[in-house]
């Protein structure tokens, strides 16, 4: 049965007057969902998930407990890592071993932007790590994992005694390589911005080994630097010796020519039948040659003392007072670093240790200054002697 709707109940969209040409008739279909419908759907969805959560609350609690327990076990099984740092200062000055090596060449070296990066790579190098391993004898300590014990040793009851001692050369070499690898893996170099200070940091599961290795790296780096400077000084000394030998040969040739000239001219000593002037000249030349040799040697030593503060001088390296004070200083620094993990620097005991460290450093500097002053006095005397003979 067809029922016709009254005209006033018809959809108003069919009764809208025609729009003029060029106009756009825009209206919203009342059948499309509004903002209230969207919010109602969102609330329904949230309530749905909340209901599911309450329904399976015991399952969710059990899953959360399993993950929490697993995280706790993982945390307890993780090996703690300790870190220790040693602060050093990198000197940029180098000794001048040649007389014509002026301030310009030293300045250009000091301004080299690659200098500090080179020193950082030397600290992280395998060569320095090997020096630390040999100095601390790490291959025979518990720093390296104990070597594998053979079945025969286990049967004979030798598995516990000497567990960290390698019994053959190959085992020692393997443990040394392993120690070198551990040092290179745990080492970190941290430069302090806008300064020549560097922090050598080493991380290890053992706090004692972290501290020992950090200090050992700093000490071996200083010794390696001194060895490199000593090698350069030794090379310069050999070079100067060769030059002096050449000058000596030329001097002997000149003396022979002078004697021949005196003989031809009849300038002879009646008693000795030898050229008197030649004898005097020979004595003067010999004294002058000795004076030049002494002055050159002392001059190079004095320049080396000025370049690096005198720390690489042979007189300083062999001085008994400086060696004893350095050993005392190393002990004080190690004690300070060890106690620093327990108390703060402002603690009275730490202040007393720092005072002793400063006093030991001051004593070393004073002794080095005394050695430098003696070298300067000897150099001034040799220079004055050479000038007197030259006149």
Explain what you see:
The chain is mainly alpha-helical. The protein is 64% helix and 5% strand. The chain contains 12 helices and 3 strands. Strands 1-3-2 form a 3-stranded antiparallel beta sheet. β2 and β3 (197-204) form a beta hairpin. The longest helix has 59 residues, at 207-265. The protein is elongated and about 135 Å long. It starts with 34 loop residues before the first helix and ends with a helix. The relative contact order is 0.07.
Question: What keywords describe this structure?
Answer:
three-stranded antiparallel sheet; mainly alpha; 64% helix; elongated
Name the poorly predicted regions. Answer: 1-32, 95-110, 159-163
Q: Estimate the global geometry from the Cα principal axes.
A: elongated
Strand content: 5-15%
In round numbers, the mean pLDDT is 75
The CA-CA distance between the termini, in Å, is 147 Å
Amount of helix: 55-70%
Tell me the Rg in angstroms. 43 Å
What is the string of helix and strand elements?
Answer: HHEHHHHHEEHHHHH
Q: How many distinct helices?
A: 12
The largest β sheet comes out as: 3 strands, antiparallel
Strand pairing plus helix content: what structural class? mainly alpha
Please report the total strand number as a whole number: 3
Strand order of the largest sheet: 1-3-2
């Amino acid at each position: 049965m067809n029922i016709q709707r009254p005209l006033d109940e018809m959809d108003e969209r069919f009764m809208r007057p025609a729009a003029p040409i060029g106009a756009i008739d825009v209206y919203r279909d009342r059948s499309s969902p509004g903002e209230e419908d969207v919010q109602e759907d969102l609330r329904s969805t949230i309530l749905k998930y909340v209901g599911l959560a309450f329904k399976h609350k015991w399952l969710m609690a059990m899953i959360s407990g399993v993950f929490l327990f697993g995280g706790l076990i993982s945390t307890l099984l993780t090996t703690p890592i300790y870190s220790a740092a040693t602060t050093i200062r990198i000197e940029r000055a180098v000794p001048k071993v040649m007389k014509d090596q002026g301030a310009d060449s030293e300045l250009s070296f000091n301004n080299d932007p690659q200098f500090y990066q080179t020193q950082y790579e030397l600290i992280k190098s395998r060569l320095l790590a090997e020096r630390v391993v040999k100095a601390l004898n790490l291959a025979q300590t518990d720093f390296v994992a104990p070597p594998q014990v053979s079945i025969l040793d286990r049967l004979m009851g030798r598995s516990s005694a000497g567990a960290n001692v390698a019994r053959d050369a190959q085992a020692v070499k393997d443990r040394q390589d392993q120690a070198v690898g551990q040092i290179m893996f745990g080492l970190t170099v941290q430069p302090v911005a806008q300064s020549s200070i560097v922090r050598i940091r080493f991380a290890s599961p053992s706090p004692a080994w972290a501290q020992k290795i950090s200090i050992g790296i700093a000490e071996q780096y200083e010794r390696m630097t001194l060895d490199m400077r000593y090698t350069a000084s030794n090379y310069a000394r050999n070079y100067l010796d060769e030059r002096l030998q050449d000058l000596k040969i030329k001097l002997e040739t000149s003396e022979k020519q002078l004697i021949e000239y005196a003989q031809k001219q009849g300038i002879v000593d009646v008693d000795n039948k030898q050229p008197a002037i030649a004898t005097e000249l020979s004595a003067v030349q010999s004294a002058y040659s000795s004076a030049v040799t002494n002055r050159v040697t002392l001059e190079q030593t004095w320049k080396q003392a000025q370049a690096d503060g005198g720390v690489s001088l042979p007189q300083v390296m062999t001085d008994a007072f400086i060696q004893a004070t350095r050993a005392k200083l190393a002990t004080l620094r190690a004690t300070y670093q060890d106690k620093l993990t327990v108390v703060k620097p402002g603690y009275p005991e730490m202040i007393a240790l720092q005072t002793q460290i400063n006093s030991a450093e001051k004593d070393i500097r004073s002794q080095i200054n005394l050695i430098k002053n003696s070298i300067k006095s000897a150099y001034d005397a040799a220079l004055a002697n050479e000038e007197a003979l030259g006149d």
